[in-house]
Amino acid sequence: MIKQFKCDVCDADDPAEIKCLRTYTNNQKIHVCKNCGFVYVRERRTSSEVAKVWSEDIFKNQSLKNHYSARIPAVKARQVFVADLIDNEIGLKNKKLCDIGTGQGQFLKIARDDYKAKVFGIEPSKQLCGELKKENIKSFCGTIEDIEKISDFKKSFDIVTIMWTLENSSEPNAMLKISGNILKDNGFLVVSTGSRILVPFKKPLNYYIDDSVVDTHPTRFSKNTLSLILKKNGFKVFYVNRYIDQDWLCIIAKKEKENNKISGDNHREVLDFFERWNKETKEHYLKKKQK
């Protein structure tokens, strides 16, 4: 079932299409909010349907073009980066850590074995939960929305991590709200995602946007829009990594009201950014590929 969404960050419903992206998406539409500059897919399936695709196809089916596995050096490197960053900024030893969309459990294994955290995973795939069990990692097999119904998890964790997962949810606000519910009052939320919007180009555009079904990756955050959606859901930004030249954007936020004004992005700058990225890709990468 396809539903049309307003902007997840500011609830405005007046987006502009990023038309140059149609070249890469096989004519599927991606928009930018005119009010806050958030990049998102307006028409999406439900969270449960998208989670099912990730569990049963993208993770499971190795023949797919966009098949995903955490067990490659590049993904492990970013998981080690996040674990070490958390340990440096707030400490991991003996902390109760819950990872949402934990997949194969590689990050939790790193946090447990190398940093002595007490780990727990939330994962919708029965197959992957079976893999977690083999690694002696406790988990809840279901979506974050499913766990909201279980009172035992309320205010249970010192740290909740959402790593390269928030952008794959059709309902990012629900994911953040429930994360706040399962965090202790003095807890920290850690959100990690790619650093791609309004930063130096880090890859050709066709490596970032492709013709896969676009609602499997319905939202794309900049530092400003991620900070805004965190504020909207009751979090105050505590730490931001040097995302401008690092491959990742990682924000640590406290479960605390944010009273400061946070600005979004100018949507015209976002449109111009993608036009420049498109031109750069066509001039210097796609032409060579076609020769």
Please give a structural write-up.
- This protein is an alpha/beta fold and 291 residues long.
- 36% of the residues lie in helices and 21% in strands.
- The protein has helices at 22-25, 47-58, 73-89, 106-115, 126-134, 144-147, 172-182, 205-208, 223-232, 267-290, and strands spanning 3-4, 15-17, 31-33, 39-40, 43-44, 96-100, 118-123, 138-141, 157-163, 183-194, 219-220, 236-240, 248-254.
- Strands 8-7-6-9-10-13-12 form a 7-stranded mixed sheet, sandwiched between helices. A 4-stranded antiparallel sheet has the order 2-3-4-11, covered by helices on one side. A two-stranded antiparallel sheet has the order 1-5.
- Strand 3 (31-33) and strand 4 (39-40) form a beta hairpin.
- It is globular.
- It starts with a strand and ends with a helix.
- The model has no long low-confidence stretch (mean pLDDT 92).
